[in-house]
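Hi team,

Filling in the usual template for the complex we talked about on Friday. All components are listed, including any nucleic acid strands or ligand strings, so the model treats them as one assembly.

SUBMITTER: L.P.
PURPOSE: interface mapping
COMPONENTS: two
RESIDUES: 859
SEQUENCES:
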Amino acid sequence: MVKQANDYNTTIRPTWCPGCGNFGIWAAIKNVLASKNWEGHNYVIVYGVGCSGNMADFIGGYGLHSLHGRSLPNAEGIKLGNHNLPVICVAGDGDTYGEAGNHLIHAARANHDITLIVHDNRIYGLTTGQASPTSEHGFKAKSTPNGLIEYPVNGLALAISEGATFVAQGFAGELQHLTEVIKKAVDHKGFSIVNVFQPCVTWNKLDTFAYFKEHTYKLEEDKHDRHSKIKAIELTLDRERLPLGVLYEEERPAYHEQEASLQEGTLISRKDYSDSVTELFKDFR
Amino acid sequence: MSKIDFTWKIGGEAGFGIASAGLIFAKTLNRLNYYVYGYLEYPSLIRGGHNVYEVHVSGEPVYSQERQVDLLVCLNTETFNLHKNELKKDAIIIYDPLKTQVEESANYKLYAVEVSKIVKELGGLPVMENNLFVGISLALLQADKEAIFAVVSDIFTDKGEAVISLNEKIIEAGYDFVTAHPFSFSQKIEKLGEKNSYVMTGNEAISLGAIAADCRLYASYPMTPASSILHILAGYSNTSKMVVKHVGDEIEAINLLVGASFSGVRCMTGTSGGGFALMNEGFGLAGVTESAMVLVISQRPGPATGLPTWTGQADLQFVIHAAQDEFPRIVLAPGDAEEAYNLTQEAFNLADKYQTPVFVLSDKYLSEGLYYLQKENLQKFPINRGKLIPNEEIKNQTNFLRYAVTKDGISPRSVAGQENGEYLANSYEHDERGFATEDAIVVKNQKDKRQQKSLNYLDNDFVGPSFYGNKEAELTIISWGSTKAPVLEAMKNLGDKVNFMHFHHVYPLNSQLLSKILSQTKKSLLLEGNGTGQFGLLLREQTGWQSTHLMLKYDGRPFYPEEIQAKIKEILGN
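RESULT (copied from the run log):
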C-alpha cells in the first residue's frame, strides 16, 4: 500500500500556534517518509527541545525526544547501534547553534550518516521570545531590550568548514521545494544539515513569512557549483539574499562505513563476541 | 627458608619507564607463582616529576602496598632523598653511582652498579636502564632468569625481535653483575607451585569485564584515572568487535549511550568526577527514558581539576544524587580487580534488567593499582537482557506499550527497528506509549513505576557486605570500594579482635537487612577516602546507625595498612 503523509500522524494534534512555520516542516518530513513508503520501524527521528521538538508527539514510529541541544549525540548512538536505520534530527536554532555547537562540529567532522533539520525562526519560541543565536544584531526582545550585541551564527558555513558533506537550506513556506531538499538530505550518505527558515508568528515580528518570501531565492542547479566549499560559504555570507536549495555536497565515506567493528553488519545484529575475553587473559600472566 | 614477604620500590624521573619496570617485575613474580600488589604514584606530568612504582610480593595472598620498603631502586638522587626514610631494617638500596648520590648509613646497605655505563656499552638507550635495574633486583633475589625473559618477550612482542634481544642482553648483564658481585639478601625467590593467577589493574579488569558482558559500544572522553579503559578497549577492539569511540566531550558520550541503548546494544562510558559533572544532564535523560547503560566513574580528589593522578572516594554522594529529581540508579563499588571484573559484568545485567544506569565506582587506587586475580574466582556471568523482547516475539504485538505500568516496575523493552515495537523515548514525563503528558495520575504512575525498580532491586539483587575475620570480634571495620585492599592487608596482624565488613553494592541499600547487621557490631571503625564520611552518612540516613569511630583520609594518598593498624591499637588500647 502506498503511504500518504497523514499516515504518519499520531492521535495527538499539533499544539503549535496557528500559522506557525513548524507546520510546513512537519508536512515536508511526512512527505519524505511517505515518498520512501517507510513503516514506523524503518526510521528513527530524534527531536531536540523547543517548539520544533514538540513534533515528537505528532509523528509516529520510533522517536526519541531528547534534551535541548543533545539530539545529535543521541542520533549518533542510534546509528552506531544500527546503521541500517535512517536517522533524522529535528532541532531548533537555539537548540543547534546555541547548545549543540560542539556536537555539530563533531557530527560534521565524523560524517555520521544523520540528517539534521534545523528550524531557524531566529527567536526562542517555547521560552516566550528571547533573541536566538541566529537573530539579527540589534534585535530587541525580552532578554535584549537594548538590542542584541552579538552577530548571528552562520550555522551553514560552520557546518561546511567542519566537514559536513551535505549542506542545504529550505523555507517552511515552500513546501514542495522543502520536501525535495529534505529528501535529498535523507538520501545523502553522511552528515547532512538543512537549515529551514521557519517564521515564528507569535514572537518574531521581523522574520515573517513575507520577509523570507522577499529575501530568499532558489539556487539553480546549473548555476551554482555545489561541490565548492568556498562558493557555498560565500552564499551564506549574504544576509539579505538567502539561498534555498543544496549549497554544498560531497561524497565521503560515512563514519559507520569506516569503523572496523561494523564491517560484518550492524552492532545490534552481529554475533556475540563475549567469549573472546578468554584469549585476552593470556596478556595478564 | 624464611617466609617471603617484601616490598620492592623503583623511583625516577617521569619518562624513564618506572611503571613499565614495575610491571615487568610484578609479572615475573606472578609467573613464579608469588602474590603481588603493584602501586604507582606519579604527578600529572608527562616528563619530569617524580614517579615511583612499588611491588609488594609475598608467598601468601597480598592485598596492598605497605609503607616500608626492603629493596629501593634509585634512578636518581631525588628517589634516594625522598624515600631513604621508608626503609625496613637491612634494606638494600640499588643505585647507579654515576647518576645518584647516596649517603652511607647503618640503617641500610648500598649496592652500587654503574647501570648507565653498562647499558651504553651494550648499545642500549638510557630509557632501558630501568630493565637493567629490574634484572639486578631479580638476580639479587636469585629469581629464575627464564621467567623475566619470558615476560620481556611477551611485553615487547610488538616491538620486534631486536628490542627483545637487546633487553634480554641488558637483563643478562644484571645477572652477570650480581654473580660477579655477590650480596646476601634475606629473601630468596624459588618458583612456587602453580596457582593460576593473573595480574592486572582495576581498569584492565573493568575492561575485560565489559568484553565478557558483551558490551558493544564504549564512548568516552579521556580523563585520568579512567582514560586507560579507553585505551585498553580500543586496543582489543579488533578481537572484541566493540565500537570504541573517543568522543568530542562527555556530554556527547552519555547521550551517545542513550542512543545506543535505544538501538538495543550494551554500552558503557568511563570518566572521573569532573567528566561525570558534564554528564549529569544526559544521565537524567537515561533515567527517565529508562535506558540501560554502565558508567565507570574512577574517582580522584576534586572539586574541579583537583588532583588528577591521586586517589579518593569523595564522589559517592555525588553519583547517588546526580541529576535533578529522583530516579533509580545502582552503584557498585569493587574492592579489587577480581571484584571489578565480576561486578562490571553484573552491572550490565542489572542495567538491562532494571533498564536504568548502573555505576561501577572506582578510584585511582583501584583503577591503576596492580592486583593478582585467582582464575577460580573469576566468573563469567550469563548475559541477561531482562525484558528486551526478541524480534520473533515482538512481531505479534499489537498496541505495544514501552512504558507499561507493571507490578515490578519494569516495562517490556523494544529496540529501534523492531516491527510493532515503535515508541517515543521522551525526556518529558510521558504516558505508557512515551508521549508527553502533564496528567497528574499518569505522572504519578510513571514515577511510581520507575521507583518500584529500586525496591525490586533491593528485594532481588541487592547483595549485602562481605565479611572477613572473626564473627565475635571486638571491633568491626566498615569500608566500601577500593579500601578493601589495605584493610585486608592490615587485618593480617590484627588477630581475632577485629573483623571487617566490606560493601561492594553501595547504593541503594537494603535498610532492614543492614539495620540488623549493623546493630550486631560492638565497636566500629568506618574507614573512607573522603572528608565527611559519606558512606557513613548514607548508612545513618538509611538505618539510623552510626559508627563509634571514624578514619577518614582525603589527601589524595591511599590508606596504608600500617596506619589502619595504628588506629585500631589506639581504639582498642594496646
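MY TAKE: The radius of gyration of chain B is 26 Å. Chain B is about 40% helix and 20% strand.

Thanks, L.
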